[in-house]
Amino acid sequence: MASSSQCRLARWVVGGPPLLYLVVFFLIPTLIMVLASFRTPGEFGGLAPIVDETGRLDLNVDSYVRFVTEPVFASVFVKSAWYALLTTLFCLLLAYPLATLIAKSAKRYRDLLLLLVILPFWSNFLIRIYAWMIILGPNAALAKFVNGALALVGAGPVPLLFSGFAVLVCLVYVHLPFMVLPLYANLEKHDQALLDAAQDLGANAWQRFWRITFPLSLPGVYAGAALVFIPALGIFAIPDILGGPDDTLIGNLIKQQFLETRDWPFGSVLSIVLTIAALVLAGIAAWVGRRGTGVRA
Amino acid sequence: MRRRSAWLYAAALCAYAFLYVPLAIVVLYSFNDSRLNAEWVGFTLAWYKTLFADDQMITAAGNSLLIGIVASFVSTVLGTLAGVAMHRYRLRVLPILIVAPIAIPEILTGVSLLIFFVMLNFTLGLGSVALAHIAFCIGFVAIVVRARLAGMDETLTEAARDCGATPSQAFRRVTLPLIMPGVVAGALMAFTLSIDDFVITFFTAGAGTVTLPLQIYSMIKISVTPEVNAVSTLLMLLTLLLIVVAAKISPTLLRTAREP
Amino acid sequence: MALLDIQRVTRRFGDFTAIDDVSLAIEAGEFFTLLGPSGCGKTTLLRMIAGFDLPDAGRILLNGKDLADTPPERRPVRTVFQSYALFPHMTVEGNVAFPLEMARVPASERKARIEGALEDVRLQGFNKRYPHELSGGQRQRVAIARALVTHPAMLLLDEPLAALDAKLREDLSIELINLQKEVGIAFVYVTHDQSEALALSHRIAVMNRGRVEQLDEPSKIYGFPRTAFVADFIGHCNLFGGPVANRANDVVTVDVADLGPVRVGVAAGIANAAKGTVAIRPEKIRIAASAPEGTPDNHFRGTVEDLLYMGDVTVYRVSTPGGAKVEALLANSQSGRAKFFEVGDAVEMSWPVGAGHFIPE
């Protein structure tokens, strides 16, 4: 074995370059954003000089105060969380049968079926949004059919595109693979003997599902929920493209602050709140997941 | 039993349809002889001709390709090092920095890099986009490489040492060839992620620089024409090609990529 | 001077002492076995010889030279790993050539060396195969050829037969003995299988809880275990402990609480001990329906409580009126079709003083 100093040198040679890169291009930018949240917005956007004319360090919590005192921002967060929650639920409903089917199919088909789930994920993000623009467009068959049906019952036409509905459908569409993968990974490990035992003990299909399969799959459900909820919370392209005027989510607000209003300190505050929300959720998911594995063992 | 599985098939079929019908429609309408993406009129290749005559689109594609190659190359080298380091040593900081950019919403990486580049007076453009792409691709490569290493028999490295190989010889002759499928898979993944990235690029590209996703974005924001369908179809074809190549190189790619 | 000298080596992992002040010497050309249950420290010791682990205290000398600062690749010892650790991306030839390349053996010489090593393990003609195209036994041979090709001073084998089925294990054991004779290199063999150890080795070190309990030739280990652990670990053994009641003419009488006085012969040189254990192998106990003729040295009555019919022999577990359990082994009728006693039968057990072995405490 190498001596400990040699070992430490090797550690730095191997781990040093990526560490350095991520410190410079991820950690430092994040810290700068935290600093920016305490600064004053510049007259023409961006940031005012950190030292003002009188030579004093210009750091304040004005942007935080603004976030807390103006309820409109909190309501955007609530709306984002609501959309993310709905997305998670619908993803779960669609992913469960899919993951079950893949886990139950013959081994030689599993990789293919799984690949078919992942494949759309590898197509461009914007293309997938664009696809829904076509499907939900006012001249497309779906809108004509829906509005025709509504007209029969005397209701006025509704736009499908540029609506909360469009945003939600696309959110589910884009995040579905993230729910299927962890669910499948969990369901695949289930022991058929447990279900046979439950059936032997008198449980019907419904009972077998709710008493055996579902509780055992909870770690997979939690992992999937985290993988869907967190990115859905910060999404900005989908409401930006498919949403109506009321569908401003956190992501849009952040984009606005940085590129339109150019109030960087406030944009930073919003970003930090989102980061904290994401990290707390990821932490909870990891914690619940670890407890969940204890159940599974 | 039978009835329940019929139920399952129906539900799963719906889910697959949900995944593929939208993409199929995009492809289908790229050959449609109509400005409107509404109903099938007739077959044409006109939109592909328009596409290849569109200078802006060609420039954007060139930029995307250039950034993709640079970003995937650098992030593969750094990500492989990171994967090996995380597998070999008990590290505290690196694993967090590897996972964090993947775990948090992309927009956060985008805006923090925007502030960072502007504060450093770093001109936004191809360079800043490539630097940003490397930052979020490293993690994906590292995770794939580490999964590959975790699946490797640890005694093989010891056996190489036992046969007289120095640590670096053991790495080059035994470890590296064995994790190569993971490295290649990671590189292809990084390339695809870079080519496809919209959010981070959107914030770090600045005003004058256009990549393929940015070009698609401005087209669907301003005026939707089936030219977008055409470029989308080609882009999907490229991705599919990369996946087939990756699967050829490493048949177990899916399995390793799945268990990070 | 011994080839390998292990001097007072200790290795701890946290609170756990894997190797506790072990000293032993291995001679050139010897087939030496480290035998013990899992967790006894035998593999740790092997890894320290190979250089994958370092002692916390003590020294390991090879030909009189301390190995502490020599990394594994520069030690003239080679390991045959339990999993064989064949490089899956190289052919048989590539695997065997690897140590030669590392040692910068000129290419012109390599071919002959590879052929020689493959011949040693009787695996000619497999040069272009990949490890996954070989059977378990063939893989093991490649691993041995790879380890031998650079003519190391010593070969370390870590349970090399454990992954193989019983039949193959026997064949390969015989081959290993012959191979070792042929190449004349010292083998250090690690196993938890006592019959393997007895069959293969010139000398055995029986290890338990990081210590060497006994280092001896196989026949001595079996016939004259020095501790109760060794007696019990090497084959089955009845152990009767108690105070020494009497000693006369090299016969010791041990007062066993639940059995009675047990008489056993001791070697002349053994010092007086106040307490001790009598170890007696089940096959040395005579078991019969009627009382033995004459007055045997040890004679007890009992009832058959359990029995294990094993074809050629049957193991009877007999309980005595005092509550002692004695295991006795009896060959069945020649064809193996009939055993002699059933559960509940009253039996008479006897054995001469020479059948047991006294382990003083």
Walk me through what this model shows:
The complex is a heterotrimer of chains A (297), B (260) and C (361). Chain A has helices at 4-36, 62-69, 71-104, 107-122, 125-136, 141-152, 164-188, 192-200, 205-233, 237-242, 250-260, 264-296. With 297 residues, chain A is mainly alpha-helical. The longest helix of chain A is centred in the N-terminal third of the chain and has 34 residues, at 71-104. Residues 293-297 of chain A have low confidence and may be disordered. Chain B has 260 residues and is mainly alpha-helical. Chain B has one domain (54-258): Orthogonal Bundle (MetI-like fold). Chain B has helices spanning 2-30, 46-53, 55-88, 93-103, 106-119, 126-150, 154-162, 167-196, 199-204, 212-222, 226-249, 253-258. Chain B is globular. A 6-stranded mixed sheet of chain C has the order 6-7-8-3-9-10, sandwiched between helices. Chain C has 2 domains: 4-228, Rossmann fold (3-Layer(aba) Sandwich); 236-360, RNA polymerase II/Efflux pump adaptor protein, barrel-sandwich hybrid domain (OB fold (Dihydrolipoamide Acetyltransferase, E2P), Beta Barrel), CATH 2.40.50. Chain C has 361 residues and is of the alpha+beta class. The longest helix of chain C has 18 residues, at 166-183. Helix content of chain C is 23%, strand content 36%. Classes of the chains: A mainly alpha (297), B mainly alpha (260), C alpha+beta (361). Chains in contact: A-B, A-C, B-C. Chains A and B meet through helix 1, helix 3, helix 4, helix 5 and helix 7 of A and helix 1, helix 3, helix 4, helix 5 and helix 6 of B.
Short structural description:
The complex is a heterotrimer of chains A (297), B (260) and C (361). Chain A is mainly α and 297 residues long.
Number of helices of chain C: 8
Strand residue percentage of chain B: under 5%
Secondary structure category of chain B: mainly alpha
The ordered string of helix (H) and strand (E) elements of chain C is EEEHEEEHHHEHEHEEHHEEEEEEEEEE
- Percent helix of chain B, as a range, is over 70%
CATH fold-level assignment of chain B:
MetI-like fold
- Tell me the count of domains of chain B: 1
CATH H level, superfamily name of the largest domain in chain C: P-loop containing nucleotide triphosphate hydrolases
